[in-house]
Design a protein that fits this description.
The complex is a heterodimer of chains A (about 110) and B (about 110).
Chain A lengths: L2 E4 L3 E5 L4 E3 L1 E4 L5 E7 L5 E7 L5 E3 L5 E5 L4 E6 L8 E9 L2 E5 L3 E6 L1
Parallel strand pairs in A: 2-12
Antiparallel strand pairs in A: 1-4, 3-9, 5-6, 5-10, 7-8, 8-9, 10-11, 10-12
Chain B lengths: L3 E4 L2 E4 L5 E7 L5 E8 L3 E10 L2 E4 L7 E2 L9 E3 L8 E8 L8 E2 L3 E5 L1
Parallel strand pairs in B: 2-11
Antiparallel strand pairs in B: 1-3, 3-8, 4-5, 4-9, 5-6, 7-8, 9-10, 9-11
The chains are: A mainly beta (about 110), B mainly beta (about 110).
Chain lengths: ~110, ~110
């Protein structure tokens, strides 16, 4: 089975500063990796995914993530955050024959 | 507009009173799934369906039932709700394969007294 660990439960950051949200996964087979965002009182929205090929993937709203197979990581980054980026971020992993497994989430708190 | 809808959005009920949360998608997706979200636990999958009449258990299926009689609908049934089923529930759908992103509904906040 696959599993995901989000290393930070909460990440406070000032507006216009860069941010990195960490995600590590565990799997014995090749995986697909996702990031989803949940804004307050809303459902989850797809942010980006890694399937294969280029290890740097770009998503919506200026977010990007880098797949690192040797470190089994898929960290999410944004070079300059806005107040509107305040949300809960979820890393998720799936593999052929297995359902999607979510991490416990990281709360991104952007302050002025 | 492509969307996943859930009803009701909020529900307060009492222990043992059967309830159904409906989920419908208009994207002709084959895969549908139910999750519950609890503080500190993230999202956990309850049940999923790969296609009409095909359903399977997720990580936390106890106390829940589902059915998939039509492609667009995937209701979640709590035959005898208990307080530990108080949670935020999300329905999701996708084209079908594991590499596809899922589209989520707005959520149903359920309180069982």
């Amino acid at each position: 089975a696959q599993s995901v660990t989000q290393l930070d439960s909460q990440v406070p950051v000032f507006e216009e500063a860069p941010v990195e949200l960490r995600c590590n996964y565990s799997s014995s087979v090749s995986v697909y990796l996702f990031w989803y965002v949940q804004y307050p009182n809303q459902g989850l929205q797809f942010l980006l995914k890694y399937l294969s090929g280029s290890t740097l993937v770009k998503g919506i709203n200026g977010f990007e993530a880098e797949f690192n197979k040797s470190q089994t990581s898929f960290h999410l980054r944004k070079p300059s955050v806005h107040i509107s980026d305040t949300a809960e971020e979820f890393c998720a992993v799936s593999a052929r024959g297995y359902a999607l497994n979510f991490g416990k989430g990281t709360s991104l708190l952007v302050t002025p | 507009e492509a969307q996943v809808t859930q009803n009701p959005r909020y529900l307060i009920t009492v222990t043992g009173k059967k309830l159904t949360v409906t989920c419908s998608q208009n994207m002709n997706h084959e895969y549908m799934s139910w999750y519950r979200q609890d503080p500190g636990l993230g999202l956990r999958q309850i049940y999923y369906s790969m296609n009409v009449e095909v359903t399977d258990k997720g990580d936390v299926p106890e106390g829940y039932k589902v059915s998939r009689k039509e492609k667009r609908n995937f209701p979640l049934i709590l035959e005898s709700p208990s307080p530990n089923q108080t949670s935020l529930y999300f329905c999701a759908s996708s084209l079908g394969v594991m590499s596809d992103e899922q589209f989520f509904g707005p959520g149903t906040r359920l309180t069982v007294l």
